[in-house]
Amino acid sequence: MTKFIFVTGGVLSSLGKGITSASIATILKQSGFKVSMLKIDPYLNVDPGTMSPLEHGEVFVTADGAETDLDLGHYERFIDATLSGKNNFTTGQVYQSVIKREREGGYLGKTIQVIPHVVDEIKRRIFAAGDGHEFLIVELGGTVGDIEGLPFMEAIREIRHELPKTNTMNIHVTLVPYISAAGELKTKPTQHSVQELRRIGITPHMLVCRAEQPLPKDLKKKLAMSCDVDNDAVIEASDAASIYQVPLNFIKEGILNPISNHLNIKIKPNMEKWDTLVKHIVLPQDEVTIAFVGKYLDLKESYKSLTEALVHAGAHLNTKININWCDSERIEDVGAYDVIGNSDAVLVAGGFGHRGVEGKLKAIQYARENNITYLGICLGMQLAVVEYARNVLGLEDANSVEFDDKTENPLIYLIDEFMDQSGNKQLRTHESPMGGTMRLGEYPFNPKDGTNLKKAYGPNETYYERHRHRYEANPFYKTDLENAGMIVSGESNGLIEAVEIKDHPWFVGVQFHPEFTSHLETPNPIILEFVKQAITKN
After folding, report:
1. For labelling, which of 27, 173, 191, 344 has a CA lying 20 to 30 Å from the CA of 527?
2. What domains are defined for the chain?
3. How crowded is the C-beta side of 44, counted as CA atoms within 13 Å?
4. What pTM did the predictor assign?
C-alpha cells in the first residue's frame, strides 16, 4: 500500500515547499524506495500553459505533453524520474471533471457539492498518482487558510482517516522570522499557522522551519510543545548554497528519525554520488561564463529548467557556470558586443512573440561570425536558420511567419498538419488557439552521423526529447541551407530538429527543449556538450 506524505505551507508563499518535497523524495529514493510526486495547484486555470512566464514562471512540459507547474521540473531533477500529467492537477481540472461528469448524468441527478463530490475527485486523483509506488510526496500549493485550498485540505484530512496511521504523514513548512530590531527569532507566525491547520482538522507530524538564523534548541522545544509535534520533528531549513544541498542538510538535521518512526520504515540513503555533485556545485575547480540571451529576464524563474540544466552540466564537469543575463531588447539598442562582452559561449533561449527577436538575431550573428560556442533552443534554433538565410544565403526578407506572415521567404512556417504523440493528425492554422496547435511532449529524433549532435548523444539511431512550439523550420530551404554550409543534423519524421554550421567550431540549434530532461544525476547530453565546448574555448 502506498504511503503518502503531504506537504503544506504556512505564513507566506515562496518558502520552498517544492524543494522541501523534492528533498524528502530524494532521501527516500536514495534509500531504495519507489517514489513519485504530485503537485496540487489551487488556481482555477486548467493548466499554466496559457499564463505569461512573468505571471507564473516557467511552464514545465512532461513527456506525455502536459503543461504543468514548474515544481514538476524540480521533482524530476531531484529524483531523476520521468513524471506525467497525472503528477500535477489544478482546481480548474478538478471542477472541469466534476462538471463534465454531472452533465453526462454520472451523479444520477444528485445535487453536486464541494463535499463530497469535489473532494472525492481530488482524492481519486491523489490515489491515481500514487498507484504503483511505495511513496507519494504530495505538495499543496498556496498557504494554509487560503479559501481556494480548503477542498484540498479536506481531502488530505479524509485520506488520513481512510488509511492506516503509518501510511500518511503531514509535514508543514513554515517561517520563523528574525526580527533584527528585537534581535530575536519569532515563533508566533508558526504557532498561528499550525493553529489554522489544526482548525481545518489536520495536525502536522513535522515542522520544516525556514529561518535566516540557526534555531536554538530551546526554540525548537518551544515550537514542538506549542505545535504538538515530537521534539525531533522540528527541522531547521536555513538558506543553502545550492538547492541540491537541501537533502544533505535535512539528513544532518535529523529528518530520518521522525519520518522512519512515524511511517514505520527504515531509511538508509546512499548520498555519496549526490554529495560529490553538490561539492562540485558549491566549490567548483573551474568556471565559465555563458551569455544567456532572453527576453523574460524580469523573472528568472521563466528559464528555471534551463538554468538548472546548466548547473547539472557544471556539477559533472566540476565547473561553476556564471550566467551573463543578456536582454535581447538591449542588444537591439546597443549591439551584441556591448551586451555579450567577453562571454565564453552564447545561449539563445526559447520564447513566443515578436518582442526582442531582432536582438536575438544580432546575438546569433555575433556568435557565428566570431566563432563563439553557440546553442540555440527552440526559437533559438529557428532564428539561427533565419539569420543564416539572411546573411549567408542573401535572402534579406527571410523570416518566420510568426513575425511576418507575408514574408516571401518563410524559413520558419506553420505546417498545416502534423502527427501528435498518439499518432493522430492535428491541423494548425494562424487562427487556431495557440495552446491547441503546439507540438507538446516527447517526440523521437534521429541525429546525423558525424555531427556535433551525434557526438553529444551517442551511438543510438533514435533519441527522445520534449517539445513546446508551434512553428517549424521549412524543409523547402533545406538544400539551399546545406549547400551554403548549414547542416541539418537531426530530423523527426521529416521535420527539422537540429541544425549546425559546417565551418564553425561548435554551433548547434535544436528545436526541442533539452532542459526538460536534464537531472542532477543525469545531465542532458547536448547541454553537457555545450558547456564542455565553452570550457574548452575559455
Report:
1. 27
2. 3-276 (3.40.50.300), 284-537 (3.40.50.880)
3. 2
4. 0.91
